[in-house]
Write a structure and sequence with these properties.
With 512 residues, the protein is of the alpha+beta class. Helix content is 40%, strand content 22%. The protein folds into 2 domains: 237 residues, ATPase, nucleotide binding domain (Nucleotidyltransferase, domain 5, 2-Layer Sandwich), CATH 3.30.420; 126 residues, 2-Layer Sandwich (Nucleotidyltransferase, domain 5), CATH 3.30.420.
Amino acid sequence: MGLMGLDIGSTGAKAVVFSREGAPLSQAYREYPEVYPGPNMIELEPERVWQAIRAVISEAAAAAPEPVAALCISAPGECFTPVARDGSFLHNTIISMDSRSVAEVRELAEEVGAWEIFRITGMPVHPSFTLSKIVWLQKHRPEVHAATWKYLQWPEIVHLRLGLTPRIDYSLAGRTMAFDVVRKEWSERMPAAAGITADRFADPIASGETIGELSATAAAEVGLPPGALVVAGGHDQPMNALGAGVVRPGLAVDGMGTVGCITVAFAEPVLNRAMFDQNYCVYPHVKAGMYVTLAFTYSSGSILRWFRDQFGQLEQQQAAAEGRDVYEVILSDLPEGPTGLFLLPYFAGTGTPYMDPLAKGALLGLTLGCDRKSLVKALLEGICYELALNVSCLRDAGVEVQRLRATGGGSKSPTWLQIKADITGCEVVTLNVAEGGCLAGAMLAGVALGQWRSVDEATAALVHEERAYEPDAARHARYQELFARYRRIWPAIAEVAHEMTGGDGACNGSSS
């Protein structure tokens, strides 16, 4: 009995079939391009996405040594498509990073109030969310809005294309800015403020509930056996958290990729002023009865890539000569102890808690005694200081973070993980899992089939900690002193950094 997890991303779709023991049996991947039809607009061509989804499901199922009994989907939030009653696409998929609706989200905030929006939906006021973009469509594409039967995210489109009634899970519903995250139902006030009714969305359902069984015709469409179950999955971040075994308070998954993002689980919705003031979202976890928040830095692994491309020619040559990974070479032989340098990792603006798109990166404390390796370590320290800032802010708001389960490319670096433990004071652990979002889909599918009695039992069976990195007491004490300085830097230089916006004195990739 195979369990398929399907991860639909903003640039590609991946399907992985797992055994009941959690071993990957087969997988397939297809990319699709983003399109940029206008200023601040980022879209996907939905037919290309659907064809990629069909292909990866079929290929992974055909390559698996046992039939797929159930399918479950992980998908990005705020990634929606206007769909007609006959299922046809009326417009491209508008994705999260699209920021066309700045004016519209301000109008919603003026009408409802930013605090009231957060209190109902758990979302900070931001143009990434679905509801303000629907308002934009009403204004600028009224013919599309008038013809739209439902505004669907990608899991619901897959349901519809497979002959099932589309249902949206609570976590993805929570990313629309139209969902009451406490009552777990569509808000009356938020859709009304946008000039629509809640029936423009799919009906909500808990993650792990069964959407339906595939008919013979639908199953043949994607190469699955008739009768295979389709199970409700969720938003990619909490799905990654589930795939990392984050199923109890105090645990967080630390995604160490291009963007650094921690997803923290907690038992009750924390909808207080501290969370609101620091731009933390609150919405349902894919584990029933729990909630999550996201704390993130837009520039994490991308900063190391920047160093590699701009300054790492020597390391690239050494890596090629020795047959080693270039990042292993870059991160080797770093100096002991704190550097005393301070990097603000705001190369693409800030994430939480500031959410300042005008922020700029900075490096303070340079002297003629600084060498390449000190600079590299300062890059890692800056990324970790920013993580420590988020951990501190979350704790002040009542969300405890005790243990970080590291995933992503950065989790392969013992050096980075130890620095992270020393700066944050949290224990940092690596895991035996790689495809967290797809594995979470297999877990939810397996629970629906009765393979496990609960997601707790599934994670206990499939997710195991490997190496733990404990904070060194002496280094942590020193870093705490330095961190007190770090958190004062951005408020002190923000005004000057904002004045640099637009290219005056700022690097913009051009040369004269």
